[in-house]
Amino acid sequence: MVNPFHLAIPVRNITEARDFYLHTLGCRQGRSSDHWVDLDLYGHQLVCHLDETLGDEGQVRLIKNDVDDHGVPVPHFGVVLNMTDWQALADRLTTAGVEFIIEPYVRFKGQPGEQATLFFLDPSGNALEFKAFKDWSQLFAVD
């Protein structure tokens, strides 16, 4: 078994975050309080913590770097999935009407490191990337 990561992120509203991660992404809920909620994100522990400085309509600061002619948000997080699960998630997000920062597409097609990727924001502005590799052995490959 791979060791699961633990990541805590700021959110502007716990109820809104819980709804998004449970219903839009399909996470399962763990422990929670009025100020935080534990979520099972593909076997990893994601914790949404209330950040009252964001306010009701606030967003975490979004910075983008140019990668492959796309404005990639920094920071971002997500999970590397298999291609079948990645496509199911891409379809789920599209059906839910999630606005993509970077639409689902395949990078390095036909090359070492071929991977599918997509980027979007949660309601608080946290950037997420989910990707899948055609060949898992290429996950940490160097050109």
TrEMBL record:
Superkingdom of the source species: Bacteria
What InterPro entries does the record tag this protein with? Glyas_Bleomycin-R_OHBP_Dase, Glyas_Fos-R_dOase_dom, VOC_core
- Pfam families, A to Z: Glyoxalase (PF00903)
Q: PROSITE patterns per the record?
A: VOC
* CDD domains assigned to the protein according to its UniProt record, in alphabetical order: VOC_like (cd08357)
* VOC domain sequence ranges: 3-133
Name of the protein = VOC family protein
Instruction: Please give the organism.
Output: Marinicella sediminis
